[in-house]
């Protein structure tokens, strides 16, 4: 019995095209979705790289600093920080997303951003700063 190469070649080509389509469309779509998702994040950071978090609002400034695995409040007074509370702040910062971007000609006073109602600043071990001005719900 003799095997014809035509049907076998067709099956091999079909499997090759299916593999290519999977890698190109489905896997590429996942990478594009992750890239789009990270573009809308308010902050990009690794928890292990954080050195300090500064929260500023109408009631003053609160500064959290990391020492090893522990966090401490250093401003307005120096006291150890509650680990669960800091974890909640870090989770909120990781999940914070940009919902709307203001154009260059936008009046910042409309959104209470001139001057801002508050701000959040992250400082990494390398000294890099990321800041976000906070307005009101306008």
Provide a descriptive summary of the structure in words.
With 138 residues, this protein is α+β, with helices and mostly antiparallel strands. It is 35% helix and 27% strand. It is built from two helices and six strands. It has helices at 5-39, 83-95, and strands at residues 50-57, 60-67, 70-75, 79-80, 118-124, 129-134. A six-stranded antiparallel β-sheet has the order 4-3-2-1-5-6, with no helix packed on it. A hairpin with a 4-residue loop joins strand 5 and strand 6. The longest helix is centred in the first third of the chain and has 35 residues, at 5-39.
State the gist of this model.
By secondary structure, the protein is α+β, with helices and mostly antiparallel strands. The chain has helices at residues 5-39, 83-95, and strands spanning 50-57, 60-67, 70-75, 79-80, 118-124, 129-134.
Topology, please?
Elements: H1 5-39, E1 50-57, E2 60-67, E3 70-75, E4 79-80, H2 83-95, E5 118-124, E6 129-134
Antiparallel strand pairs: 1-2, 1-5, 2-3, 3-4, 5-6
Report the principal-axis shape.
elongated
Q: What is the helix/strand order?
A: HEEEEHEE
Radius of gyration: 25 Å
Strand order of the largest sheet: 4-3-2-1-5-6
Number of strands: 6
Overall structural class, as computed from helix and strand content, comes to alpha+beta
The poorly predicted ranges are: none
Helix content: 25-40%
What's the end-to-end separation, in Å? 80 Å
Number of helices: 2
Report mean pLDDT, rounded to a whole number. Answer: 78
Percent of residues in beta strands = 25-35%
> Biggest β-sheet: count, sense, barrel?
6 strands, antiparallel
């Amino acid at each position: 019995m003799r095997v014809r190469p035509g049907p076998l070649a067709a099956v091999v080509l079909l499997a090759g095209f299916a593999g290519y389509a999977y890698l190109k469309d489905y896997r590429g779509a996942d990478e594009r979705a992750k890239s789009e998702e990270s573009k809308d994040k308010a902050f990009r950071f690794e928890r292990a790289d954080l050195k300090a978090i500064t929260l500023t609002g109408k009631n003053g400034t609160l500064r959290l600093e990391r020492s090893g695995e522990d966090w401490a409040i250093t401003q307005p007074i120096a006291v150890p920080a509650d680990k669960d509370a800091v974890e909640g702040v870090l989770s909120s910062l990781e999940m914070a997303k940009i919902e709307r971007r203001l154009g260059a000609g936008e009046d910042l006073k409309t959104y209470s951003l001139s001057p801002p109602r508050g701000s959040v600043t992250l400082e990494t071990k390398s000294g890099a700063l990321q800041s976000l001005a906070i307005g009101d719900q306008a």
